[in-house]
Amino acid sequence: MLYCVNLDDAITELFKGKLTTDPDRHSGEGIFFTSRIMDQFSIWSDGKIFAHNNHFDTLLNARDIETLKSFEEGDGKKGSTIVMRLSNFSEKQIREVFDMYTSPDGGFTITKIPIKNTFENGRPVSRSQARRLYHRFEDFEEVQLDFDGVESMEQGFAHELFVVFPKFHPQVKLKTINANAEVQKMINHVLASNK
Description:
The protein is 39% helix and 16% strand. The protein is an alpha/beta fold. It starts with 6 loop residues before the first helix and ends with a helix.
């Protein structure tokens, strides 16, 4: 079942991986792994950008691409544009990328989500945002929550994500990375208030 209320939700689902509209023919892993193998991977659609790097950097890197000029100028064309770049001298090993997100038996069990890129303003605020974020987390053994670039988060979001979700899904490990002192303080606060 797709859980996409809007385009922002769809982008969040792309970050997670394992989602397809046709499970009989697709695994839902293509965009997930391709976007991590490439030096630059971005999808531009209806004024939204799916990219792992900072959206501003994506705009700067893509300005020289003729097909994206129309996107930036908003010429009214419908559809999506995908930009992929990989250096001819890249030393990336595809197996290493797969190994970062799979178990020893090869199952796709780990996902990593850049929190800043999943919300319009880059700031996690509400319980409803947290519920949309953790939708389908139970499909993974480990979810890495990358707080790089997130300056703070509100109590409702933190409580829903770090207290409510684990209560019902103790088998899923939530791993926080790149959290600054303010974000970590809020995580500690909601965890302590639950004891």
